[in-house]
Design brief:
CATH superfamily of the largest domain: 2-enoyl-CoA Hydratase, Chain A, domain 1
CATH topology of the largest domain: 2-enoyl-CoA Hydratase, Chain A, domain 1
Number of helices: 12
Oligomer: single chain
Distance between the termini: 49 Å
Low-confidence stretches: 6-37
Mean pLDDT: 85
């Protein structure tokens, strides 16, 4: 069985469906009498199924235009699943294949991750070095039209189909952005997306920087190789490391556990609690600290979700890292991808996950140890929609009370003195000049210096 924990949204292949969860084998279908075995006392279900059959037949016979039976059934199944929560859905054969392609870290499209909520197509995050990122599309943007055609009333699947197309072909997106009065028109050129999930470079003062864009099959190996390369470039040891998980939407659960284990030698990383206690699980660290105790700062924001929150929560609970940035997305549920006949599949929310201290992140997210806003005028919860804002979002249940978690007492007081927003006149963020325009990164470097100074004093 291969374990995946979810990206919390629809990802374009241009817009390709990236299902989340635990990938399991089996046929994925059961006899009707078995499916309702637990509800043997509820005879109403059979009456409801009869109504469904009557509606299906009436639509087939009397709808104004001829209908496709396969599409009707798929729409009905998808409606049943999407009505449960924001992450359960049906995948037709193409969507299921797209999901499998994306977990390998390569797919075609615009490089934009979107979700549907209350009839709106919302951008969750652009992927680094893709047409969407280069065009300046931001988390929280609402796509209102595609090639001039309104998406109102359009399903997410339909919007995805319209955004698909051959490489080098163009598509125009009309976007509504919070704080901007007029619609923004952006023309993108489709291309094959090769996701470089790990990027690294040396920062000043012997500080290493590693950005992880998604949790794919290459993530853990990429982190290890990047840290080794940075250490070699700095004479064998780093002053500290900045791990950038901003706008990282998540991915494979086993990779989240492995990346956490790169810095936590032992102890719990994450646990899941399902409807049936026997289906609950726990994952422990199985590695060693590749930094050998050097300071670690993790950057998070509202686009950090799912597997990113597992890693952030584990590092925070084990006091192995300082989290800096803004509150994360709050996707604390697990989806199981169940294969169905015809090379289709369903993704079904089957559990909630919890940090080592027992916190449920669902709907709440991870609060950073040091709040640092991206821009001067951004509120503390800057970043657009979060999990709790979605229709039918799961409740936060079963965990420790987040309002009674003891504050960390192991942090140097100087960390709390770092400014929580850029000064007046700070330049706007420029992707090509992160060293001088990325305020959160600048403060992360300062945090590393403070932590390194404390470590030196303690050793003396």
């Amino acid at each position: 069985m291969k374990v995946r924990l979810g990206q919390w949204r629809y990802t374009l292949l241009i817009a390709t469906a990236f299902a989340s969860g635990l990938v399991i084998g089996g046929t994925g279908h059961w006899p009707l009498h078995q499916a309702f075995a637990d509800d043997s006392g509820n005879t109403d279900i059979y009456q409801e199924l009869k109504i469904f059959g009557d509606v299906l037949q009436r639509v087939r016979a009397e709808y104004v235009d001829p209908v496709n039976d396969k599409e009707l059934i798929e729409n009905a199944i998808n409606g049943m699943l999407t009505g449960l929560d924001a992450h359960s859905s049906f995948m037709n054969a193409k969507a299921f294949k797209d999901m499998q392609i994306q977990t390998r870290g390569e797919f075609g499209g615009l490089g934009i991750e979107v979700n549907e909520d209350k009839g709106l197509i919302k951008v969750v995050s652009p992927i680094d070095d893709t047409p969407a990122a280069r065009a300046g599309i931001k988390p929280g943007d609402i796509i209102t039209a595609l090639d001039g055609k309104s998406v109102i009333g359009m399903s997410l699947n339909d919007a995805v189909d319209r955004m698909r197309g051959p490489p080098n072909s163009k598509i125009a997106l009309t976007i509504k952005r919070q704080g901007v009065d007029k619609p923004i028109d952006v023309t993108l050129t489709r291309e094959v997306i090769h996701i470089q999930v790990v990027k690294s470079r040396m920062e000043p003062d012997g500080i290493g920087y590693v950005r992880l864009t998604q949790f794919t099959e290459q993530s853990d190996a990429g982190i290890k190789a990047a840290v080794k390369k940075l250490e070699q470039a700095n004479g064998g040891k780093l002053t500290g490391l900045i791990l950038d998980l901003r706008n990282n939407p998540g991915g494979l659960l086993d990779q989240a556990v492995a990346v956490s284990s790169d810095f936590i030698p032992e102890g719990e990383i994450v646990s899941t609690r399902a409807r049936h206690p026997e289906d609950s699980q726990r994952w422990d660290a199985r590695g060693h600290d590749i930094l050998d105790g050097a300071p670690l700062v993790v950057l998070i924001n509202a686009g950090s979700a799912s597997a990113s929150e597992i890693v952030s929560g584990a590092l925070q609970d084990h006091h192995r890292a300082v989290l800096l940035g803004t509150r994360s997305f709050g996707k604390g549920s697990v989806q199981t991808v169940i294969p169905l006949p015809g090379n289709t599949a369903m993704r079904l929310t089957t559990a909630r996950y919890y940090t080592p201290s027992g916190r449920s992140i669902q709907g709440l997210g991870i609060t950073p140890d040091v709040l640092v806003r991206e821009t001067r005028d951004a509120p503390a919860n800057f970043g657009g929609e979060r999990e709790a804002d979605y229709s039918n979002a799961l409740a936060n249940e079963g965990g420790t009370n987040p309002t009674h978690i003891p504050p960390r007492t192991d942090l140097p007081p100087a960390l709390k003195q770092l400014p929580d927003k850029p000064p007046e006149g700070f330049p706007a963020f420029d992707l090509t000049k992160p060293d001088t325009t990325d305020f959160q990164l600048i403060e992360a470097r300062e945090a590393i210096k403070i932590l390194a100074s404390k470590k030196t004093v303690s050793q003396e």
